[in-house]
Prior knowledge:
It is a single chain. The protein is α+β, with helices and mostly antiparallel strands. The N and C termini lie far apart (37 Å). It has 1 helix and 4 strands; from the N terminus they run E-E-E-H-E. The longest helix is centred in the middle third of the chain and has 10 residues, at 33-42. It has one domain.
Amino acid sequence: MAWQTPIVVHPPAADGGRRVTVRGRDVGVAHDDRDLAEFLRRAGLGEADIALDDPHLVEWRGGPHAWGTPGG
């Protein structure tokens, strides 16, 4: 089985939210970095473990920290 980044932030949806998965499980739709950090805390990551810019931890599909409607 291929190695996968444990956290995936999917491309923005029409409403600007981004689906977030942790180890393949949906944890919610984030609308900003604060939402994302909260989902990760709820998934069991401690504050010191949340490094949103670490490519080994987070795969940003559609660009890092890109919030809002696509193309807008």
